[in-house]
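Researcher: Batch entry, complex prediction.
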Amino acid sequence: MTATQGHPPAPGPVDAMSERTAVLDRDGLARFQALRGDAVAAVTDRFYEEYPALYSRFGPAGRRACSQDLTFHLEFLGPVLEYGLLMPMVDYLCWLDGVLGARGIPTEHLGLSLDWLGAFYARAMAQEEGAVVAAALAGARQAYLLARHEPQAPKSPPRWPEADACEDALLAGDHAAALAILQGCLERGDGLIDIELHVIQPALYSIGEKWQANQVSVAQEHLATSIATSLMTAGLLTSHPRAPVERSVLLACVEGNNHAVGLRMVADAFQLAGWRVHYLGADVPTRALIAHAADSKPQLIGLSVSFPHQLAAVTAVIQGLTDCFGAARPGVIVGGLAINRYSHLADMLGADAHCWDPAAALVLAGKLGATA
Ligand code: B12
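Model: Structure tokens for the complex:
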């Protein structure tokens, strides 16, 4: 078991469904992955053959979008076949259903695409392995149809009243208004990390929901993130760190994870607690991360992971660190959206601890003995 600290976000309704499914061994997973391109091509062709009028009107871009969606299905299916838990795939299907529905794109073929992918793998793989893949797809389909209308929003820490105005300012691109909100909170004595957790994080979560519901644009989401990051920097400049504690932490988003703001909050918390912080930001290649750890020899490493298919990168980093440091490997804490949602998977990754927010990470750092 990994150590945990703090309270997990309240589970969504899909958490009630923790159905397990059979898994593939390493070679089976490799065979499943090797067939991805063929599976996507076969099922895309089948959609165009069976529904020519419906699909042809979208032209080549429609075909590309269809293939891309199928590729995503298989990306999310991978961790299901590795860890034996349907939930990540079901969550993804519910999310996709919401995104497509909000953009007026019919979703009735989503279930069909899963059936046809299942039929492809049942044909293309050896009988037993094909049956595992087809059963996972059928199970995910059934659970998705049951859960699709349930609200799915991730829970953020309690939202302070300032979060509403902050969200408005971020979406409007009103840097000055956002800074004034930060300033007001700091002046009344709130700490930066609390402001980040109770004002900025809920504002960003809500912006994510609005993007999902097609109420804000991709550009607005980017704008909001960029202002949020600069608010955090402004807050850091006016906050007073504790005296240096001679401890160091290396923080990185694993390969493929571009969600870096949450990890930046973790970085700020360690910085203000007097730690020496190396914050590497988004999408850090596994080899580069391990090489940097070998050079800088931190006492603690924090990894951020957003999606289930990035969990393999966490395992690869931990394996690489173990190869490099042996018994002296620094402690590893994992966090991020995927961990918040599937904390039980954290136990399977080989990490020493997982948690939900920066304050909890600091407490865990102490428990892990990263106190030299
Ligand atoms: C901004 C944003 C982006 C930006 C990120 C830019 C950046 N510099 O970070 C960009 C545009 C890159 C982006 C891309 C994508 N995004 Co996005 N994004 C968001 C958004 C709106 C905010 C993210 C954020 O900063 N949240 C605030 C931070 C503070 O929260 P947090 O990450 O959870 O971090 C906290 C904890 O998790 C924890 N924590 C995090 N890391 C760690 C690490 C350690 C060690 C510890 C201890 C703790 C810890 O502490 C943090 C503070 O409390 C979210 C909405 C949301 N719910 O978060 C969507 C969201 C996460 N994105 C989503 C999606 C789908 C995508 C894309 C796939 C979109 C696409 N089609 O391309 C890509 C995937 C990118 C990738 N490969 O990673 C979905 C995910 C859906 C799902 N079911 O999981 C969300 C939820 C939006 C939505 N509602 O649909 N995104």
